[in-house]
Amino acid sequence: MVKRAPFDYFFTQFRVVVTYMRLLLLPVGQRVIYDFRLSHSLFDWRVLLSLALILVVMAVAWRLWRRSSAMEPDDAAGARLASFGSCGSS
């Protein structure tokens, strides 16, 4: 059995989360088992792009939440719902 570092799994999870986000928006090419190669470094380009995408989605959700406090109550509900959905999918 090959011993793997816990950080290998941690770095790979960024790519897994982005795959799930893609499948949520565009459910094409679904499989029962996804075979991800382990990422051994944070500086792998796939890990960096995945982390950047997750951070952008979270920043947009945060911005929508903050902006909703200055809106009318009817409009604020929609913005808060959108921010919750953005944050929940990442």
Overall description:
The chain is mostly helical. The chain has one domain. The chain contains three helices and no strands. The radius of gyration is 17 Å and the shape is elongated.
Query: How many strands?
Result: 0
User: How much helicity do the residues have?
Assistant: 55-70%
Form type:
elongated
H/E order of the elements?
Answer: HHH
Radius of gyration: 17 Å
Q: How much is the average pLDDT? A: 83
Please report the number of helical segments.
3
In angstroms, what separates the terminal alpha carbons?
32 Å
Beta-strand residue fraction = under 5%
Poorly predicted ranges: none
Structure classification:
mainly alpha
Sheet of most strands: none
What topology emerges from the helices and strands here?
Blueprint lengths: L5 H20 L19 H24 L4 H16 L2
Helix pairs in contact: 1-2, 2-3
Short description:
The chain is an all-alpha fold and 90 residues long. It has 3 helices and no strands.
Keywords, separated by commas or semicolons:
90 residues, mainly alpha, 3 helices
